[in-house]
Amino acid sequence: MSRDERIVIVGGGIAGLTLALQLHQRGISCRVYEATPEFRPLGVGISLLPHGAKALIELGLLDRLVERAIVFQESYFFTSRGQLVHRDPATSEFPQFLIHRATLHEILYEAVVARLGADAVVLGRSCTGVVEATDGATATFVDTVSGAEAEAQSGRAVIACDGIHSRIRAQLYPDQGEPVFSGVNMWRGITVHPPILSGGGHIRVGTVEHGKMVIYPILDDIDAAGNQLVNWVAEIRQEQAGPAAWNVPGQIADFIEPFRDWVFDWLDVPALIREADMIWEYPMSDRDPVDRWAFGHVALVGDAAHPMIPRGSNGAMQAIVDTVALADALVAESDVVAALARYEGERRDAVNAVVLKNRVTPPDHLIEVVEERTGGGLFAAVGDVISPDEVTAILNSYKTAAGYSRAALAGERAPKEQTS
Ligand SMILES: Cc1cc2nc3c(=O)[nH]c(=O)nc-3n(C[C@H](O)[C@H](O)[C@H](O)COP(=O)(O)OP(=O)(O)OC[C@H]3O[C@@H](n4cnc5c(N)ncnc54)[C@H](O)[C@@H]3O)c2cc1C
Asked: What is the pLDDT, as a whole number, of residue 419?
């Protein structure tokens, strides 16, 4: 088998496809090998925060996002009694978007096919492992449908973008075990609904301790009545992790209890849940951070490197930012091993800190602080419970750690964060 100059990308999810576009933009050839024989529209919403949106805009995808996503206007934080704690308006010079994961994936896939050619993504190839050599690496595959051995693929590097259950990471970390269950299960649904509040808001209500909802629209004007597709996630604490697959249907009876009385003057939450077209169940899990992502000619990117619990809308964002760092490193360093090490050096500590911060003080920690102080009761004025400075400090601490504070977007270095 002759060594190919291409970069072999394993996994054609958000990270793998974005990486292919980044490399192509820099004149580096690559090919993506994806286990799924056919892409299906699985998953629900993704909030494209400014750091991720910036990277996609720089890839020339702004028009497609404007066409197929909702432009984000603000974040809302409500208590479980439906009282507004804080409204955080969009401030970034980069537009943010609220989008169906499948739509984002489709936009990326279409761009890869248009720019790199239809054969740039090979479907139905499940990676079984990777073998490193002195001048590159080889990924081995089976045909996903038949299970038969498929042609191995060599390149000057193999990049693992194969998600939280990464086969390559399992080979590099044979003792890592299963993902770490956070003690919270999620039910995700999509409901046809009139615009809620501004119609462009990312809404968080309540706490994971007593029941939390995340609600935001992902498609506008879907009918003559001006309805939207509204994506929602119900999160509740449970002892057992739910099934870890993206296509497991959820039952309302299993999670409705904490939300039964959530009929607010701005939204009837039980009705939103009951009227969903479809509901899926999924556990909230991550993995403990690891101190190495680059192993010679092999590197981990996205969820394969740093799966995180989705309490800060950052899994996909950090994956997208990884691809920028890796592509830039491959341009900056003529030696591939040095490039992968440089990528790791730029990203690892910062992203591992986000993984830990999501466990303890993600953005909705703001609601936890308020509910702890009110004992879950009503307040007369939010300023009696928490000061504006404290609100800003909690939210900015997260934005700084995750890399989308004003300073970070302007390219200034973030101060080291305390994350545990
Ligand atoms: C079908 C699906 C639905 C999702 N829905 C949501 C959602 O609704 N909300 C949310 O917050 N996150 C969702 N996620 C996860 C989210 O996409 C990631 O957390 C984030 O975008 C990081 O992207 P990633 O590319 O690293 O991982 P992923 O997006 O998970 O992509 C990994 C890719 O690698 C492929 N793959 C896995 N193993 C192999 C192998 N051995 N060989 C070749 N390919 C392999 C997978 O099929 C997948 O396409 C979903 C992921 C998937 C795969």
From this structure: 34
Q: Mind listing the pLDDT tens digit for each residue in 362-412?
A: 999 999 999 999 999 999 999 999 999 999 999 999 898 888 888 778 775
Q: Which of 341, 359, 377 is the last residue of a domain?
A: 359
Distance 373 CA to ligand 1 centre (A): 38
Q: Which residues of the chain have pLDDT under 50?
A: 1-2, 413-420
Residues with CB under 6 Å of ligand 1 are: 10-16, 33-36, 42-44, 46, 101, 126-127, 161-163, 167, 188, 246, 302-304, 310, 315-316, 319
Same-domain status, 163 and 209: no
Counting other chains too, the contacts that 350-353 makes at CB distance below 8 Å and 24 or more residues apart are 350/401, 350/403, 350/414, 351/305, 351/306, 351/318, 351/322, 352/289, 352/290, 352/306, 353/401, 353/417, 353/419
CATH number at residue 144: 3.50.50.60
- Give the type of residue at 367: I
Can you give the pLDDT at residue 413?
A: 45
